[in-house]
Design brief:
122 residues, alpha+beta, 5 strands, globular
Length: 122
């Protein structure tokens, strides 16, 4: 179910505070920063998000979650964050990057620029 960006940011903030694993806390903080960045920008009007366990899912169209292409932002046990664009079921054809949490917002913006989402959603 699609959620409000402030709700999503709060969800990841609460998950970060509950975590006892320092690396996971760091990764969750990076995802929280991503959600806050979207909630505080004009992009919040053109991007639709939801949470799935500890993943943040983002799509550009207001359709049922998982029914079209979407970006999944996931915390990794190493403390890194994985960005994976699910536009095909063939995993080795999916765009994906791993990033340090402090660069999560930058990676999100680079992804938007690469796919042209910024011009459509900002």
């Amino acid at each position: 179910m699609r959620q409000d960006w402030e709700q999503i940011a709060s969800y990841f903030g609460a998950a970060r505070l509950r975590s006892v694993n320092d690396d996971l806390q760091t990764a969750l903080g990076g995802i929280e920063d991503v959600a806050k960045s979207i909630s505080q920008s004009a992009m919040r009007q053109g991007l639709f998000g939801w949470t799935s366990m500890l993943d943040l899912c983002i799509q550009q169209t207001d359709i049922q979650p998982y029914s079209g292409p979407y970006l999944r932002v996931s915390p990794l046990a190493s403390g890194m964050i994985e960005f994976r664009y699910l536009d095909t079921a063939i995993e080795n054809r999916q765009w994906h990057r791993t990033e340090v949490p402090t660069q999560a917002v930058w990676r999100l913006e680079a992804f938007f620029d690469q796919l042209g989402w910024r011009s459509k959603s900002a």
